[in-house]
């Protein structure tokens, strides 16, 4: 996110502009109005009497609305303008802009207001890779408006601009008016999008069984009570961002899922949606329900090399743009992730633990069993008990199919690439956890003790072999991966935090991992580096080889807490939350991996998504960790352990098995005279 960038989003649409409200054409920059992975406006520039406006201020009113206050430049500091302009913009299925001109002078002023527009209909992959179009661009003027369109075979996208009273050319809208002193003039411009010729789409409401408006979403959220003001703002910002990122990826569906992040990843990513759903279970469990059901309905049922699909596999990414439509990119959907399938099983179990919704677990039993078969067959390429990955699509498939899915993320300490196929350590941890959790579901809900016993045996065998093959006794940590020759990749990475989260680490090894995660090689003061410094492969600005990802740090903190290392977990949590103070209380996708003592403030990764879903969910995971909230069969256990600087922390109205419960710590436990107690939670010492 650039410092001068303003963005708004809702559902399947988002707008990125500068602080004047203008959308300016530029290569490799995702500015514009986007809908379902395609850009419907690539230029949208306001000019007053032929001049670009100057911004006095610009800020979001809500996630889907922004207001810009502009003035006409005078060319000198000694003369103030008499005309000012307000642009108020909202996005839904398309965009609405209300422009108001104010005359604060003493004489009438004649003005000309012009909006210059264009639509390149670039696929999001076109923008990233600077590709040219192969279809046909067209435009049709009409009274008070114009339609911009793009067609290629059976694929069509249109942008309908309606500006009553404007003089319309094929590239601009112009209004001419004389404004009396002390008066204002306003006009509304509507931009509607379409996916077939001459048909504009209607706005899509949120699913009836989910909170619709932002007020409903916030009202349904637990109330945070704390003495740390920054934490209150971070919590509120995260709730707003996660509400904004709900969208409708599947045509005809009424259920919204969390998109991964703006601007590059406003799409379904199975891994992201599942992890966000996990993070949000105490707050909005309906996200997990819709995510699990939607992913199960699109679970792969046959082999497809182009899409890396195999029976039982959970999808990685779904796009709706031109390149996916014509098969030029495999994301229609694409299944190139080796971790989404075990994560699906983990979230299914965790969802039932929080909600008691056994019906969903029964309904998804076929999908869960198919996912287990994938773990045991296609996921284990050489039948050695580990999940390995290697794309079936060498032309456009992902080389790395773990969460660190950039091309160079699985490297030896010297930076050389590990040989394929690769078995990364954290995926083995997920597979272990998935088997243990699914064994519980099989025994308690599906009433299949034979499956439960087999899964428990398989989990124990994986535990034994993993801790023999991946542990590096001379270095005191786990290998990042086993390469194609089954040789350990000895790079020290944040993946060890995921192993703690999964529970695959023996207790006697936890101290060594905790010291690394909280030591200067890995902990920057703001969060955990994806790759530890002092290794040749380390770069604080490399996407997965030295940056800090909030969700990654939160997972490490949760893993440390799982093993009783609460002080170390709080150290990571406080560093990450303190970063939010400097970032307008929004945690971005990633931060640069510079040490805190060198920069004093957190440094943004240059192309980080903001907002980004699992970064917004990271504070929720940290709140759960600090309060020690854990669902048990008949109650919500609360085992608080607060950082030294945090004296009071409480969540009122935590969602647990259809009830609202309280989680209290510190002095909050003595403040119930002003808060309505909700029975059902207990504090464990």
Automatic annotation (TrEMBL):
InterPro entries named among the record's database cross-references: 6-hairpin_glycosidase_sf (IPR008928), 6hp_glycosidase-like_sf (IPR012341), GDE_N_bis (IPR032856), MGH1-like_GH (IPR054491)
Putative glycogen debranching enzyme N-terminal domain span: 9-189
SUPFAM superfamilies membership: Six-hairpin glycosidases (SSF48208)
Domain Mannosylglycerate hydrolase MGH1-like glycoside hydrolase positions: 272-582
One Pfam family it belongs to: GDE_N_bis
Transmembrane annotation, as ranges: none
Name of the protein this chain belongs to: Amylo-alpha-1,6-glucosidase
Organism, scientific name: Micromonospora gifhornensis
